[in-house]
């Protein structure tokens, strides 16, 4: 009798350990009540001890190689893009941007860029991005900054671009300018102002927003795994990682809230 009892207890412990695989909060992702993706709850998209964990109800795991990607409301993780960096924009049509909360020659100033020529921050700290629109382009990942108010890490910067520098209400054209960004420094981008992140490593992006992905994909949800050539969701929380592939393309892996496969 004691031998039978010990055997049952041992099997119960093993079963509980197997059911707990993947239940640690550190590797799990689910959408929060406000539509954002929050770590620490939900169903894991990773493997634990060789066991594949299926996405939860209403979620789909997207992985494979991609030929086209369009994400709206994309938040980079990390959000900082180190300087040097270059932002481009067509001239006119409300494009360009404005720096505020900065000092030039020790005076509170604003710096206005009307596009046309690249906005080149040649030295300084980092741009801290607001949500952006992300598209896959031949050069890498194009981030459309227009419509966002982005931050700057505190420090001294050099801008090698013709701009208008306003101090005490007077705007003066300059071919280049050195400025100091304080804690309230902001870059308000307009129109098609965008920068491109090159193929220098994996990029994790989260959001809620529209998702459009094309390529050779594998989609996994509660119903199982299937092949697809596209995945589209009009509005969903998502947590996706884009990684440069050795052949020059890109791969994708992550979760979205809903399955809109074609």
Please describe what this structure looks like.
β16 (163-167) and β17 (170-174) form a beta hairpin. The protein has one helix at residues 2-19; strands at residues 28-31, 37-44, 47-48, 51-52, 60-77, 80-82, 85-87, 96-104, 107-113, 119-123, 126-128, 132-137, 140-144, 149-152, 155-159, 163-167, 170-174, 177-190, 194-197, 203-221, 224-244, 250-256. The chain has 262 residues and is mainly beta. The protein is built from 1 helix and 22 strands.
Structural shape: elongated
The rounded distance between the terminal residues' Cα atoms is: 58 Å
Oligomeric form: single chain
Gyration radius (Cα, Å) is 24 Å
Count of runs of 4 or more consecutive helical residues: 1
Quickly list its features.
262 residues, mainly beta, 2 domains, eleven-stranded antiparallel sheet, seven-stranded antiparallel sheet, 1 helix, disordered N terminus
Short structural description:
The chain is mainly β. It is built from one helix and 22 strands.
Give me the secondary-structure topology:
Layout: H1 2-19, E1 28-31, E2 37-44, E3 47-48, E4 51-52, E5 60-77, E6 80-82, E7 85-87, E8 96-104, E9 107-113, E10 119-123, E11 126-128, E12 132-137, E13 140-144, E14 149-152, E15 155-159, E16 163-167, E17 170-174, E18 177-190, E19 194-197, E20 203-221, E21 224-244, E22 250-256
């Amino acid at each position: 009798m004691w031998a039978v009892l010990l055997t049952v207890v041992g099997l119960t412990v093993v079963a509980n350990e197997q059911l707990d695989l993947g239940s640690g909060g550190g590797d799990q992702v689910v959408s929060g009540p406000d539509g954002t993706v929050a770590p620490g709850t939900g169903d894991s998209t990773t493997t634990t001890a060789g066991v594949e964990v299926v996405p939860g109800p209403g979620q789909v795991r997207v992985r494979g190689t991609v030929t086209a990607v369009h994400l709206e409301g994309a938040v980079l993780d990390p959000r900082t893009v180190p300087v040097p960096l270059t932002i481009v924009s067509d001239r006119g049509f409300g494009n360009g941007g404005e720096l505020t909360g900065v000092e030039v020659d020790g005076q509170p100033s604003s710096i206005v860029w009307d596009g046309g020529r690249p906005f080149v921050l040649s030295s300084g700290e980092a741009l801290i991005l607001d949500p952006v629109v992300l598209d896959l382009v031949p050069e890498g990942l194009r981030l459309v900054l227009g419509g966002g108010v982005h931050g700057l890490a505190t420090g001294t910067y050099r801008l090698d671009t013709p701009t208008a520098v306003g101090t005490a209400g007077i705007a003066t054209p300059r071919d280049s300018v050195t400025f100091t960004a304080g804690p309230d420094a902001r870059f308000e981008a307009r129109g098609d102002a965008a920068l491109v992140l090159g193929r220098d490593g994996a990029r994790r992006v989260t959001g809620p927003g529209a998702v459009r992905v094309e390529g050779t994909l594998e989609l996994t949800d509660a119903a199982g795994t299937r092949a697809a050539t596209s995945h589209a969701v009009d509005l969903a929380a998502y947590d996706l990682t884009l990684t440069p592939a050795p052949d020059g393309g890109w791969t994708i892996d992550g979760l979205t809230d809903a399955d809109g496969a074609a």
